[in-house]
Amino acid sequence: MTLPWHKSTMAQLSSRLHHQSLHHAPLLLGPEGLGKQEFAEALCDLILCHSPISNQPCGVCQSCQLLQAGTHPDKHRITTENLSIGVDSIREGIDKLQGSAQLSQNKVLLLTGAQRMTTSAANALLKTLEEPTNNTYILMTATSAHSLLPTVLSRCEKHTLASPNPQTLQNWLRDEHQIQMTLEEISAYRSLPKLCLNAYSEGGVTYAQFVEALHNLNSPSSVHNMAQKWEVHIQDCLIWLQQWCRQAAASNQYNEIYDLSIHLMKEAQHPGVNKSMLLYKILNRVREALS
Predict the structure, then answer these.
(1) Which of 42, 60, 41 minimizes the C-alpha distance to 50?
(2) What is the pLDDT at residue 204?
(3) By the 8 A CB rule, do 116 and 122 touch?
(4) pLDDT band per the 50, 70, 90 thresholds, residue 100
(5) Residue 257 CB coordination number (10 Å)
(6) pTM of the predicted model, to two decimals?
(7) 38 — phi, psi (to 5°)?
(8) Who has the most CB within 10 Å: 10, 19, 53, 284?
């Protein structure tokens, strides 16, 4: 399903598909949680549909039925359980594009998180990007253009997906998902729809719960307990701390916590780092600020 604020981009690409001028390698750009994967899936289904209607798959042709069943022979993915996408995964994906489409139309390869490609993997993709076979599309998503090799970028067509404004997102969450969120909460999730939805999914954690926990930090042991409990959500916590500091009264203490959260976000990305200790360090500063 295409999100409302992405419909104009989908309409543009749909028109180009209809006029046979759609680029063979669209690159969808935007932060995690924006809905790039959903857009890529919708565009893929549109490309493979035999009779699209109003920028959407018809839902009734043989191709659409196979897409709904998850068994379409011309829809392929590059998947990996690793943090990076290696050359073998890319070669395996490219191999699936060889030959004619089984339903005598188009072939599509979905590459999610293209920024995770190793240099050798990106180079392995170049030849296919340079010399695509007829009716073949490679749909890629990435968090930013800067994360990809210039040689790959030059062979793609970049589309930066729009982010909704907070009020639009607030209304959509209320009307479509019966989720009531304040604008402050939405800002804490950087107005990213999937982050908002995930927070209210089963087992999710919310900004409101985090702020409540902050105000219960009354001893070093409570700081230790919170650091251990929330370490799996450390990136969210550090972003939320920035939002919390922006909402707090201006003071040197809160400015220091804000700056520390930015520094720790970089440290938290290092493999093997003790995330509980990083959280303890900054949460203790929060406790001192609140005492």
Answers:
(1) 60
(2) 77
(3) no
(4) confident
(5) 21
(6) 0.84
(7) -65, -40
(8) 10
10 Å Cβ neighbour count for 95? 10
Helices 87-95, 119-130: crossing angle, 10 deg rounding: 20
75-78: strand order across its sheet: 75-78, 107-111, 136-142, 26-29, 157-160
Q: What are phi and psi of 107, to 5 degrees?
A: -125, 140
Match 């520390």 to its residue by tokens. Answer: 260
Residue 152: which residues within 8 A CB-CB, separation 6 or more? 114, 117, 122, 125, 126, 129
| Radius of gyration for the chain, computed over Cα atoms and rounded to the nearest angstrom | 22
Rounded CA-CA distance 14/19 in Å is: 9
The residue to which tokens 């070093």 are assigned: 220
Give residue-wise pLDDT tens across range 189-229. 989 999 999 888 877 788 989 999 999 999 999 999 999 99
pLDDT band at 51 (very low <50, low <70, confident <90, very high): very high
Closest CA to 280 of 221, 205, 194, 199: 221
Position 161 scores a pLDDT of 96
What's the 3-state SS for the chain? CCCHHHHHHHHHHHHHHHCCCCCCCEEEECCCCCCHHHHHHHHHHHHHCCCCECCECCCCCHHHHHHHHCCCCCEEEECCCCCCECHHHHHHHHHCCCCCCCCCCCEEEEECCHHHECHHHHHHHHHHHHCCCCCEEEEEEECCHHHCCHHHHCCCEEEECCCCCHHHHHHHHHHHHCCCCCHHHHHHCCCCHHHHHHHCCCCCCCHHHHHHHHCCCCCHHHHHHHHHHHHHHHHHHHHHHHHHHHHCCCCHHHHHHHHHHHHHHHHHCCCCCCHHHHHHHHHHHHHHHHC
Q: How far is CA 219 from CA 205, 214, 227, 290, 291, in A?
A: 23, 11, 13, 11, 10
